Amino acid sequence: MAPSKREREYARKREAKFAARRRAKQERRRRIGIVVAIVAILGLVGGGALVAGLTASEDAPVASGVETPAGAACPLGSTEARDGGELPDPSVAEDRSWTASLDLCVDGVTETVELELAGADAPQAVASFVALADQGYFDGTQCHRLTTQGIYVLQCGDPTATGTGGPGYSFGPVENAPADDVYPAGTLAMARRGGDAASMGSQFFLVYEDSTIPSDAAGGYKVFGTVTSGLDLIQAVADAGTADGAGDGSPVSPVIIEGVETQ
Q1: What stretch of H or E contains 35?
Q2: Per residue in 151-177, pLDDT tens?
Q3: CA atoms within 13 Å, Cβ hemisphere of 109
Q4: CA angle at residue 64 from 63 to 67, to 5 degrees?
Q5: What is the pTM of this model?
Q6: CA 88/CA 41 separation, integer angstroms
């Protein structure tokens, strides 16, 4: 069946956004390369004193992300409400698996968490996530909630960083939730209000450690994907804990979504 005009428009916007993000990444890598080259030249001029410092010890972790230039840090997270437009039709999910790249900045370092989205099992959630990602809705937002006791999740997708924000629409019902209430590490699921199956919007959570999350009157939580790479970054954020040391709060180091690409 030929794609509809709306589906063709989503595809066009998706390709344009992907190309723009790719150019931005290339430019960021180019700038960082210039900084590294300058540092290397200064090291040579100084008699090679930097060589030892650039050699990773056997026990030292090797950063897999992109570090911002000296003096730079992660962008400030949004606190303003955003309009996500209209709820897209589930057909936008195309009844297929998608890949998504979630660029997260923590302590001045940007790393990518790779996701696989289940368009066939959770079409409305995937359609919404893809449409919001393609319009830049998540860009510059904070992952506002970290839980480290009882359940183990990092929650994101609220541009106000309060836990109450959304795209201006909501949807339901709950589908594709585990019957046993067990959400394995790497699960990507939709957040919602307690007892309200039709309150899903833009907020989602990433499970970094196997968690049993009890169902309520509305059921469980809609699973719409899995983390395929980068879960160690979420685990590192969790290891650092919350800002106030409680088991449920904002991460001690702000986690900023710099961008989301979907394919």
Answers
A1: helix 5-45
A2: 999 999 999 999 999 999 999 999 999
A3: 11
A4: 70
A5: 0.76
A6: 52
pLDDT tens-digit series, residues 191-231: 999 999 999 999 999 999 999 999 999 999 999 999 999 99
Q: Distance (Å, rounded) from C-alpha 62 to C-alpha 209?
A: 23
Cβ–Cβ under 8 Å, residues 152 and 67: no
Instruction: Report the distance separating Cα 55 and Cα 46, nearest Å.
Output: 17
Burial category of 86 from C-beta neighbours within 10 Å (exposed 0-12, middle 13-18, buried 19 and up): exposed
CA distance 95 to 117: 10
Written as one string, the DSSP assignment of 202-230 is S-EEEESS-EE---BTTBS--EEEEEEE-
The 3-state secondary structure of 121-188, one letter per residue:
CCHHHHHHHHHHHHCCCCCCEECCEEECCCCCEEEECECCCCCCCCCCCCECCCCCCCCCCEECCCEE
The answer, yes or no, to whether the previous bond of 173 is cis (omega within 30 of 0) is yes
Residues sharing a CB contact under 8 Å with residue 118, sequence separation 6 or more, in sequence order:
97, 126, 176, 223, 224, 225, 226
What is the C-alpha separation between 96 and 129, in angstroms, rounded?
A: 14
